[in-house]
Amino acid sequence: MDSLTVERIQSFLMLGLFEWSQENNSSAWMYLGIAIRMAKLMRLEQDDRRMAILENQAPDTKRFEKKSPEIVIIRETRRRTMYSCFIMDRLMSCGSERPLSIAVESMLIQLPCSEMAFDLSLQVYTGLLQPREGSSQPQISDDSTLSRFVKLVEIWGEISRYISMGGRSREVHPPWNPKSTFYKLREKIIAFDKDLPDTFTLSRQNYYRHDNHQATNAYVSLHMLASVCQIVLNREYLPFLPLRCREPQGPSIVNQTILNFAPDRFWEESAEDVFQSSRNIIDLHKYKLYVGVSENQKLAPTNAGGTPEAQLFNVKEPTLAAWD
């Protein structure tokens, strides 16, 4: 424990991840805490700034060595290790019992690069997680689903804190009021979704593109978490058991009179966001299943016509008319 290394931090992160997968939340939280404190002692969250100072102080003959492919890989590995701490901190933290350990303002390193840039040891700039207002930043030369996922994790952290601290019960304003926390979080999700490049949006074609470049995990995680953000946030103002509801409406709470004056289609749009997010999760599962079938079966015609993959996606889904 006296020796601080990136490998030790990664080991504790893996131990924490394993304990978390086994639902041993307390053990996972302790292992993560050790990893985060070791990373802070190594000042990994300020690594880019420290390295830049060292490069400027180094002689000209040494500056070329510091930009070698090996150094690029080492620096990116240190960044990814710190962002792994950040991601697990946001996902494991919950309420007052497990508070956040890493402030977003302290993350002064650039976001993780794409897998291609990492494999080729390219020196790229990916931007900061939270750029300072008014500060000039270099032009971003590399974008990836992994860096977008890190940004979304920060939004999820805010949603998690909002829900765990009481959610709508702590609100002073109705959810459609720009001053409410719900409205601000919802706008962040909408802005994040609109800012995604076309190649990062959810579609079958984009799934195949990322699968070809071995970036499926980051792509699936990105859209899974985006769907979870929508579901968890919007469920705050949806009825828990809408058995007698003729249409989407707000929950039965003390200030029900205020909720009755919602803007036109507010509740309908909230319900649509939740069900569309649920649909996105189902689609991701289908894409994954489709790839698994295509890798393990021959693309041969069947008696029903077409390929097994075509049958998988041509299954008709039940509609509301079927229940009439």
Mind explaining what this structure looks like?
- There is one protein chain.
- 57% of the residues lie in helices and 0% in strands.
- The chain is built from 13 helices and no strands.
- InterPro entries: TF_fung, XnlR_reg_dom.
- This is Xylanolytic transcriptional activator regulatory domain-containing protein.
- One of its GO terms (molecular function) is DNA-binding transcription factor activity, RNA polymerase II-specific.
How many individual helices?
13
The overall pLDDT average reads: 82
Low-confidence stretches: 293-324
The residue fraction in helices comes out at 55-70%
Distance between the termini: 66 Å
Rg (C-alpha, Å):
23 Å
Shape: globular
Core attributes:
324 residues; mainly alpha; 13 helices; 57% helix; 0% strand; disordered C terminus
Give the SSE map.
Elements (H helix, E strand, L loop, with lengths): L5 H16 L3 H17 L5 H11 L2 H7 L2 H24 L22 H5 L25 H20 L16 H15 L8 H9 L3 H19 L21 H4 L6 H31 L11 H6 L11
Structure, briefly:
Helix 5 (69-92) runs parallel beside helix 7 (145-164).
